[in-house]
Amino acid sequence: MEEIPQFVQQVMTDIYGSLPRQGPGNAESTRKAFSMLGELPERPMTLDIGCGTGAQTLELAKLTPGHIIALDTFDWALDTVSEKVVQAGLVGRVHTTKQSMDAMNYREETFDLIWSEGALYIMGFENALKTCRRLLKPDGYLAASELCWFAADPPQELRDFWAQGYPDMKSVGDNVQLIADCGFELLGHFHLPDRAWWDDYYTPMLKRLPELREKYADSPDALAMFDENDTEMAIHKKYSKSYGYEFFVCRRG
User: Structure pTM?
Assistant: First the structure.
């Protein structure tokens, strides 16, 4: 993964650091996906890849008494997770690690459950599936949300937008086949509801951006990043029926 310039990291911290979530998702969807898992060990070992500030990490800690490793590359995100862990009395059960997902150094067959909400696209979904399979114990579980096409023929404006943001986006059906090809048994999948995009992500971001435009008024690069966020939100509002996150729950075959 390429090193993110320091200035870009600072702007990203200002945009995303104060948001409840750093991408689409909600506690309801986390719980729904968890309910689709089969039987786990009494105290499973879980890896949360791309944990952000830990909204789903803390939800998982309510759902399972096992140990959870929350992995991310950003200090600001991991610092927030650590604060939440202390506040929730989870020290000793939830651990943070600063590590790139494409350079994870865990031994094969380490985890009973790997979780990732909206992050595996960074390493490419196929590559991520193969990596996760190696890290899972036999019959271990993977639960991950992945950006997908919902429409067979998406509008051209939408295709053009995601050709820049995620050119490898696939349909739900194509990802179902990919999951099987990578050695997983699919247990279930569902669309992330539209409120999962807005309640804890886009709506708080809309409130945050005007303040940031003032702070970075003399920085064309930062203003361009804010424009990209505005464009993404407008695209989603216009075309949410044509694409979105699909939550896939599967078991290592």
Answer: 0.96
